[in-house]
Amino acid sequence: MKLTDLDFTFPEELIATAPQRPSRVMWVAAGAAEPEEITIQDLLARIPAGDVLVVNNTRVLKRRVFSGDVEILFLKQLNATDWEVLFPSKKFKVGASLELPLGVQMTLLEKGRPQKVALSQEVSEDYFQKVAELPLPPYIQKAREQRHTVDADESWYQTAWNKTPGSFAAPTASLHFTQNDIQALVERGVQVVEVTLHVGLGTFLPVTAEDLNDHDMHEEYVEVSAATWDVVQKAKAQGRHVWSLGTTTTRSLESAALGLLGPASAEGYKGFTKLLIQPGYEFKVVDGLLTNFHQPQSTLVALVAGFASLDRVKACYQWAIERKFRLFSYGDLTVWTSPSIDKVWK
Q1: Is 129 exposed, middle or buried (0-12, 13-18, 19+ CB in 10 A)?
Q2: Which of these, 244, 228, 248, 275, lies nearest to 171 by C-alpha position?
Q3: Rounded CA gap, 233 and 194, in Å?
């Protein structure tokens, strides 16, 4: 698949700069001629008792630090003072230093993507809590005409069930739901289980290869517990459906099914995935995909197109754009169903 195949146009004013409660929902049934708009409550009612909803319990790290107008995203600690980071290093030479908050100096050791830097002293999680911001997507910063986060982002950009720190972006499909929504599903007999995928460069770095097959996905850490996998496998064996809340959850489940996380232990699956899903992929686990609208030329659009076909995704996106659905991380929700789910509603 060519990168240009994943392109589409949209009005910039549809980029959401804050969540809308409740969000709008575009429901795309596999056999329907066109999408329909439903409410969040309609959606919850359409997930049958006995089905399984899988969510990602990752927590977004505060790792975006500013040195003047230079933005640095701290990715991985290599030793006491050395880090892998991501920042616009083109105008800096190896050996250049930048002043960080609270008197910390950062020296560029190696260029690349990511870069390697050394700090003048060891910093703790407390340091980042004091001086860093959540890594809000650049397109939200641009749409707001403001690079720094606002206070409300502290709650807006975390899911209601976040608990395992490690992500550099939120699993944004989950931002549409509250704990009350999940509790309502549980009370109706829907099984809700968790996985962990820490969102990293693999999800949000732009694709630079012209052919998607040449794109090298950065690995991301995944945990699928034995208890979660047991619930999922029993549902599949009994003909019940597995609904995946987000592309990260989808990649977690499909990575486990493909054996990409190594052999299962008594605790389940733990490992790293570089899974890139695109048209032609045969889904092993996921029957229903709940996800946001995604940016053009992204691996996330490719994943949705792998579930529902590229032509259908583009047509449905155009349908939503014409109706002024709000786009991307703080935007509205889409739901894509498989033919097996369609049978329930016919």
Answers
A1: exposed
A2: 248
A3: 14
300-322 burial: b if 16+ Cβ within 10 Å, else e: bbbbbbbbbebebbbebbebbbe
34-69 burial: b if 16+ Cβ within 10 Å, else e = ebeebebeebbebbeeebbbbbbbbbbbbbbbbbee
- The residue assigned the tokens 């959401």 is 16
8 A C-beta contact, residue 48 and residue 242: no
For residue 189, which amino acid is it?
G
Residue with tokens 């975390």: 158
**Phi then psi dihedrals of residue 235, to 5 deg:** -60, -45
CA 279 from chain center: how many Å?
19
Divide the 346 residues of the chain into consecutive groups of 10 and give the mean pLDDT of each group. 93 97 96 95 97 98 96 96 95 97 98 95 96 95 95 97 96 97 97 96 73 88 98 97 98 97 93 95 98 96 96 97 98 96 66
Start-to-end CA distance of the chain, whole Å, equals 33
SS3 66: strand
> Phi, psi at residue 26, to the nearest 5°?
-100, 115
Residue 180: partners with Cβ closer than 8 Å, 6 or more residues away: none
Nearest to 292 by CA among 329, 323, 324, 338: 329
164-336-144-151 Cα dihedral, nearest 10 degrees: -30
Say which residues have a Cβ less than 8 Å from residue 256's Cβ, sequence separation at least 6. 222, 224, 229, 264, 269, 285
Position 19 scores a pLDDT of 96
Using the structure block, give the residue that is written with the tokens 């930048």: 98
For 21, counting Cβ atoms within 10 Å of its Cβ (0-12 exposed, 13-18 middle, 19+ buried), the class is exposed
Angle 299-308/247-257 helices, nearest 10 degrees? Answer: 70
